[in-house]
Amino acid sequence: MISRIRGRALDWHDDTQSVEIDTGSEAGGLVYEVRLPTAVWMALEDHRPEALDLYTHYHVPDRAPVPVLIGFLRPIERDFFRKLIGVPQMGVGKAQQALAASVSTIAQAIEAEDRRTLTQLPGIGPRQADRIIADLKGKVVEEALLVDEGFDAKAQRPVRPTDQVAADALEALVGLGYTRRDADRWIAAVLSAPDLTAPQTTEDLLRAVLEHIGTGP
After folding, report:
1. Rg of the chain over CA atoms, in angstroms?
2. In this structure, what DSSP letter does residue 28 have?
3. Which of 24, 27, 29, 32 is nearest to 3 (CA)?
4. How large a percentage of the chain has pLDDT more than 90?
5. For residue 153, what pLDDT is reported?
6. Residues 13-49: pLDDT tens digits?
7. DSSP secondary structure string, 131-177?
8. Exposed/middle/buried for 54, CB within 10 Å: 0-12, 13-18, 19+?
9. Are the CB atoms for 94 and 74 separated by under 8 Å?
10. 121: helix, coil or strand?
11. Distance CA 81, CA 140 (A)
């Protein structure tokens, strides 16, 4: 079992939220592809360090026996993930997708029986939120006290533009020097505003985002 990987980050893949890590010497070695839950990906996205030290969960799917490595910054995060996949009808794929908020945020929601926060996580509906609370309440107190990035579900649900207007606006904001994380969050806030007419051009969307930055918290 592969429980930890240290090495040099070679390539970051935005589409799969994964990173290739070279664990060998200059003479050659193994390169592992490690998938990152959204919260971990976002914690690393702004600086993308050259050297990585990740705690990993090794998984071989039943239907497609191709090993998968899922990486975490801290061992307690991996331990929380393993508790999460033990919840009925959860599974590795759904648990990885659900970690769109920090471990502390999710654990606090579980301990507080905060279904609203849990149902904001990707793939988690009301019934699954109830299962998570029933299975894990009282078992994730340590994780709830964890000092981590504190990402909440809304901040961690990145915008994946489905149209050219949003995609162009995202790249324009990044080109202006804003981080992709902030640009994702601002675009998501603008597009989800109930009293806003959907922008029809990139310029309209950028204007709305800049107004949001100037007036928002």
Report:
1. 19
2. B
3. 32
4. 38
5. 60
6. 887 889 999 987 655 678 999 999 988 998 898 788 9
7. HHHHHHTTT-HHHHT--S----TTTTS-----SHHHHHHHHHHHHTT
8. buried
9. no
10. coil
11. 11
d(CA 37, CA 106): 13
Task: Please state, in angstroms and rounded to a whole number, the distance separating the CA atoms of residues 59 and 39.
Answer: 19
Predicted TM-score (pTM) of this structure: 0.68
17 backbone φψ class: left, alpha, beta (φ>0; ψ -120 to 50): left
Average pLDDT of the chain?
Answer: 84
The pLDDT assigned to 163 comes to 56
List Cβ neighbours of 157 (8 Å cut-off, separation of 6 or more): 38, 100, 120, 122, 188
Q: Which residue has the tokens 């070679």?
A: 10
Amino acid identity for residue 189 in this structure: A
| pLDDT-derived band at 161, boundaries 50, 70, 90 | very low
User: How many CA atoms within 13 Å lie on the side-chain side of 171?
Assistant: 7
In contact, 165 and 187? CB cutoff 8 Å: no
Contact at 8 Å (CB) between 213 and 169? Answer: no
Q: In which band, very low, low, confident or very high, does the pLDDT at 113 lie, cut at 50, 70 and 90?
A: very high
